[in-house]
Every structure is written in C-alpha cells, then in structure tokens.
Amino acid sequence: MVQLYVWMASWQMECCGTPFREGSEVSWRLGHPNLAELGWIDTVLHDGIAATIDAVEDHHGDASAPLTAGTVTSIATLHSRSAPEPVAGSGLMASVVTAEKWNDDVEGRHISGFLIRILTPN
After folding, report:
1. Which residues contact 2 (CB under 8 A, 6 or more apart)?
2. How far is 44 from 85, CA to CA, in rounded Å?
3. From start to end of the chain, where are the E strands?
4. Could you give the number of structural domains in the chain?
5. Is residue 57 within 8 Å of residue 28, measured between CB atoms?
6. In terms of DSSP bridges, do strands 2-9 and 55-57 run parallel, antiparallel, or are they unpaired?
7. Would you write out the chain's pLDDT as a tens digit for each of its 122 residues?
8. Which of 66, 64, 75, 80 is nearest to 118 (CA)?
9. Please, where are the H alpha helices in 4-86?
10. The domain containing residue 65 runs over which residues?
11. What backbone phi and psi angles, to 5 degrees, belong to 21?
12. CB contact at 8 A, 55 and 32
C-alpha cells in the first residue's frame, strides 16, 4: 500500500468535482506536481507543504494518464487571501471529514483547494 498526498484546486471541484469524504473510494487521473505552480502554497502557509505533494488531481489534465484508485484517509481545506497575488502568511488549513463542491469563505479567506491523503494499492 502507498499513501499519496494529493492537491485538488477548488476550481477543479467546483467545475467538475464530486464531493467525497474520509473513507471514500476514489478513482482519479493524477498528474505530477509542478513545484513552480504550487509554490504559492508555501507563500501562504510558510511551511514547505508544496514539496510534500505527490500528485495533483486535474479533471482537465492528461486524459491518457492512468486512473489511480484509492481510499481517502484525510482531507484538509486550504483557505487564503489574494490581492491579487497570494498574500504571504494568509493560509488557513482545516481538517474536514467531507470535501464539498462549494465552500464558504473563512475569516475573509477564499477556498484555494484541498490537501488529500489517499491510500492506494500500488
């Protein structure tokens, strides 16, 4: 069994996503993370999380990428501020049981996305 740390941008969920919860079986086309594209996460959180992301869920990515099946073991939301660039230190992570399609702002921060751990058989 392999545990993967997956990033899902909020717009991906809002556009084409299906809500899921801890314990859900998922099957996603996962892409390789691009640290240059995910570096803003470290800007808003100041903690090096971007480098720990194993994969990115992207409904609009490479349609030929193989499906990765697994069980969701944890979900965290990331809310942050932008002005229009990500505001340093403005990130707020919260553990949740369910990833919803639509998410409210938290303390003036907009939903940025989800950090998800999935357990895969391979």
Report:
1. 119, 120, 121, 122
2. 10
3. 2-9, 20-21, 25-31, 55-57, 67-80, 92-96, 98-99, 110-120
4. 1
5. yes
6. parallel
7. 999 999 999 999 999 889 999 999 999 999 999 988 999 999 999 889 999 999 999 887 777 778 899 999 999 999 999 999 999 999 999 999 999 999 999 999 999 999 999 999 97
8. 75
9. 10-16, 35-45
10. 2-120
11. -140, 170
12. yes
Distance in angstroms (rounded) separating the CA atoms of residues 58 and 40: 18
Q: What are phi and psi of 17, to 5 degrees?
A: -80, 160
Burial class (CB in 10 A: 0-12, 13-18, 19+), 65: middle
Question: 66: helix, coil or strand?
Answer: coil
